Amino acid sequence: MTEFINRLQKVASNPNAFKKTGRGIERETLRFTPGASLSTKPHPEGVGSALTHKYITTDFAESLLEFITPVSNDVDTVLKQLEDVHHYTVSHMGDEKLWPLSMPCFVTHDDDITLAQYGESNVGKLKTTYREGLKRRYGSVMQVISGVHFNFSFSTEFWDELFGEQSEEQRKESVSDAYFALIRNYYRFGWLIPYFFGASPALCSSFIQGRETSMDFESLGKTYYLPYATSLRLSDLGYTNDAQSNLKISLNSVNEYVDGLNKAIRTPSEEFAKIGLKEGDKHIQLNSNVLQIENELYAPIRPKRVAKSGERPSEALERDGVEYIEVRSLDVNPYSPIGVNEDQVRFLDMFLTWTVLSDSAPMNDSEMACWKDNWNKIIEQGRKPGLELKIGCQGERLTQKAWAERVFEDLLVIAKEMDRVNGDDAYQQTHKRLSAMIDDPELTISGRLLAETKAAGGIGVIGCKLAVEHRETHLAHQYRFYTKQELDAEVERSVQAQKEIEASDKLSFSEYLEEYFSYLK
């Protein structure tokens, strides 16, 4: 019996180990006009304050909405919550629609994009200034690429069964070590996510105007595509950052990770220093270091802990270790009105459980480079028949099909245990549907989307068609978790909360920044 099976049987002995899994979803999407242009309107007034609303905010731009669910222990509940906040928001958007794809089609220049605005408080100005810095460093167009982030945590019961009786300090260390083991295995095997769920095999030509690329694109009118691509969003043309390619942040322990992160935040950048910190009285970046703040680190997965008021993310990790992980490799699912579906959530439940229960040796920079090469192959040509991936840094290779089948043997064991606990076969059904995609790559989201793109004559045509269908779905939706009264009350609360924050400021913005970054001195 393998160690994986031993560990699985341990945790599965307690039904609550799986029943109390924590999940939360963050979905990004651009607002666009009936004329298929990026919206120039401010954040819809009827949905409250983007600074303080619990569920509806903005990401980089005023037009880039972000919907956030609270933590839930039930798959159906988290999807109901997401449906409700989509319905509420679309009901306050007039004739604007939500772009259903990760890659924007109607943005041709940075000046088309208005940075997200969060009011006159110092914390609101900090958020906008950080985005101004991102614009100056990397350009705005890359920043309005949309994705879905999946926040995931194992239950206390899961850790109790896996580790047995421990002191509080021992448990904190064991949990953090386990989450970092998961993260290392995510880098090793996470290419399965863009294989199944990548949804950006094609781009609008406007997106790559003036950008150098070595990719051998085929064209279809104003659409550029790679015949076997899965997720160009995750490629060098997408949501990546060459300036961070030399950062060597260890994934072997929470202390090594935090040390590497803090070093990057403290390291001056000659390139970013040329931008300057201010234009007249206007702050144009928070500082000129390699990272302005921790959130600037681009990564397909992040270790997280809920921070206390005024606490930085790295300080929270240092204080009490890893609390949950944030999966950041999901493209927006164009076939779901909310950008993600049940199969994706259930797959991540199984996959993340497998990554934490499987052996995971420490990883050096050389091994990390090997795994990144596998990801890049899947991203650019993942549906190619017979595509081979590395199974280590010694030259051994295996086809993506054979390797996926090996992983899915273990995932089936997990699916059966999860279904036994829940009294149904939902996880096994997800396993069955995804197994069919291993046998036939054209059943994947990227395979379906590219075929439809070719048939329709372009990716923009598909995007507009799906946006209309999804808007009708959202408007016809009946509340399933929240009530309209509850969401109305949250709008009022958020507006009042922003006013109170603005009224409480005692420092000028320059003084606030100096105090905020005093730890760098």
The number of domains is 1
- The percentage helix is 40-55%
What are the segments in which pLDDT stays under 50 over at least 5 consecutive residues?
none
Total DSSP E strands: 14
What's the overall geometry? globular
Please characterize this protein's 3D structure:
- This protein is of the alpha+beta class and 521 residues long.
- It has a single domain (3-383, 446-520), classed as Creatine Kinase, Chain A, domain 2.
- 46% of the residues lie in helices and 11% in strands.
- It is built from 19 helices and 14 strands.
- Strands 1, 2, 3, 4, 5, 11 and 12 form a seven-stranded antiparallel sheet that branches.
- A hairpin with a 5-residue loop joins β2 and β3.
- α1 (3-12) crosses α6.
- The termini are far apart.
Topology (elements, then pairings):
Blueprint: H1 3-12, H2 16-19, E1 22-32, E2 56-58, E3 64-68, H3 75-90, E4 97-98, H4 122-138, H5 140-143, E5 148-153, H6 156-163, H7 168-189, H8 192-197, E6 202-204, E7 218-220, E8 223-225, H9 254-266, H10 270-273, E9 278-279, E10 282-283, E11 301-304, H11 313-320, E12 324-330, H12 342-357, H13 365-381, E13 388-390, E14 397-399, H14 400-422, H15 426-439, H16 445-456, H17 459-476, H18 484-504, H19 509-516
Antiparallel strand pairs: 1-3, 1-4, 1-5, 2-3, 5-12, 6-8, 7-8, 9-10, 11-12, 13-14
Helix pairs in contact: 1-6, 3-17, 7-12, 9-11, 12-14, 12-15, 14-15, 16-17
